[in-house]
Amino acid sequence: MKLYHSTHAPNARRVRIFLAEKRIEVSFVDVDLARLNHREESFRAINPFETVPVLELDDGTKIAESIAICRYFEELRPSPALFGTTMIERVEVEMWQRRVEFFLLLPIAQVFRHTHPAMGRLESPQVPEWAASSRAKALASFARFDAALEGRPFIAGERFSIADVTGLVALDFTRPARLSIPENLRNLHRWRADLSARPGSVD
Amino acid sequence: MKLYHSTHAPNARRVRIFLAEKRIEVSFVDVDLARLNHREESFRAINPFETVPVLELDDGTKIAESIAICRYFEELRPSPALFGTTMIERVEVEMWQRRVEFFLLLPIAQVFRHTHPAMGRLESPQVPEWAASSRAKALASFARFDAALEGRPFIAGERFSIADVTGLVALDFTRPARLSIPENLRNLHRWRADLSARPGSVD
Description:
Two copies of one chain form a homodimer. By secondary structure, chain A is an alpha+beta fold. Chain A folds into two domains: 2-76, Glutaredoxin (3-Layer(aba) Sandwich), CATH 3.40.30; 87-196, Glutathione S-transferase Yfyf (Class Pi), Chain A, domain 2 (Up-down Bundle), CATH 1.20.1050. Helices cover 49% and strands 7% of the residues of chain A. Chain A has seven helices and four strands; from the N terminus they run βαβαββααααα. The first copy, chain A, is globular. At the A-B interface, α3, α4 and α5 of A face α3, α4 and α5 of B.
């Protein structure tokens, strides 16, 4: 079993944090996105959609998409449960995972892709107006998530989950995207600090 | 149990198709997106993220996000299984659901949101350059999905799944987005025709 990943790709980091929380070790294979290795024929044979991470099982099966890979490990090692344990928990974790992904990670990533000079080869053309619009969406989301975190330790409730993994990756991705989280959003800052203290947050 | 939805919203349609496949009936509550009803205080109390669909359970629990709602119904009525039956099937369905969502539905929806005059109130500002870039991404995806569908009836393999639900909604959303699927992509056209013949595709 090996994981094709990239140190800088936020989706690959999601899987690494998930594995650390599960205490699972795998072999890593680096894919250099800056050199466009993911667009080469050899990698397209592994994932025709040209994204990392990809998990290759021992029988050669290839699983792309960070959340699909995390679900694989959740089934392989159910404890600690990071996708919820009861029916309603599983459904709420899914809801929050998607909210964090679409309302937080996505607009932050769009700001990064459409403003950072190094992304010019990957995101072509970069559209400054879309970066500005995405920045406004991200700022509106910060306030929404701050409100959602009032009185709850984790975004899906009492337990740490995959939704928090996506949350930490999103919040840390504000740095290369050059977005600031307003000081007054105390719940959001507290959430980020708590998540940053967990295993796997630094790699 | 009732479902807040909108006839025209692609994410609400995903749930309606899913329910038809499961033969589950629920009560519907219309939310008029054109009149911005989803941004009113009364709806923000139901979903602070201002999206449809939202499922309200009899105990008042509110589940937002189409895929989270579908997972709720999958657990409530497991047969026919639309998220896979074996571990590897479940993981591959998740992978394909996400690929269809991010590589097909998302760019098509971006074209629609950033070009259609009626969307000016919901997507402000509309960015023509981002619409053009999204159009190119959608066209590139058409070819990729056509290749992926070679020799397989459904996008995740032999069985119809939630990934196909997202696929049909995405392909039909090309019409308001004014995108044409090239004639030579025969697998993609065959897939769409097969999915269009299923229950719940017309509503």
